[in-house]
Amino acid sequence: MKYVMLIFQGAALEGQAELSEEERKQVYADYEAIGRTPGVTPGVPMGLPENATTVRVEGGRTLTTDGPFAGMKEAVGGWFILEADNLDAAIELAARHPAARHGGAIEIRPSEAYWSKEAP
Questions:
Q1: pLDDT per residue over 55-66, tens digit each?
Q2: How confident is the model at residue 14 (pLDDT cuts 50, 70, 90)?
Q3: Which H or E element spans position 34?
Q4: What is the phi/psi pair of residue 57, to 5°?
Q5: How far apart are CA 88 and CA 90, in angstroms?
Q6: CA of 91: how far to CAs of 53, 55, 68, 80, 107, in Å?
Q7: Is 120 inside a domain boundary?
Q8: What is the CATH number of the domain that holds 99?
Q9: Which residue in 113, 106, 39 sits closest to 79, CA to CA?
Q10: How far apart are CA 12 and CA 104, in angstroms?
Q11: Domain membership of residue 8 as a residue range
């Protein structure tokens, strides 16, 4: 099963400046380890939420908004794909992610069920 792993940076991004050099090195090592995990397909790096443009279409008109549209504290900071045997394996990997341990969160979504014939 493939899982889309959405990285919500939240306080993790803000708290990076407060980390010691050793802690920062560990965070980078954790990112590298996750990227080398069998079954992981890294996503491309994303820019900061304040540099985003959100597009909606209402009544046939294209509307744009500067910055993220979602009114949430934790903006999506990145994503990657994990091919794993089950949700427990995806949860285990998500718990190793620096964002999950430093004030952010990892949202796990099965990627195939929606498009498969077995979807509800």
A1: 889 999 998 888
A2: low
A3: helix 21-35
A4: -125, 120
A5: 5
A6: 31, 32, 27, 14, 9
A7: no
A8: 3.30.70.1060
A9: 106
A10: 5
A11: 2-110
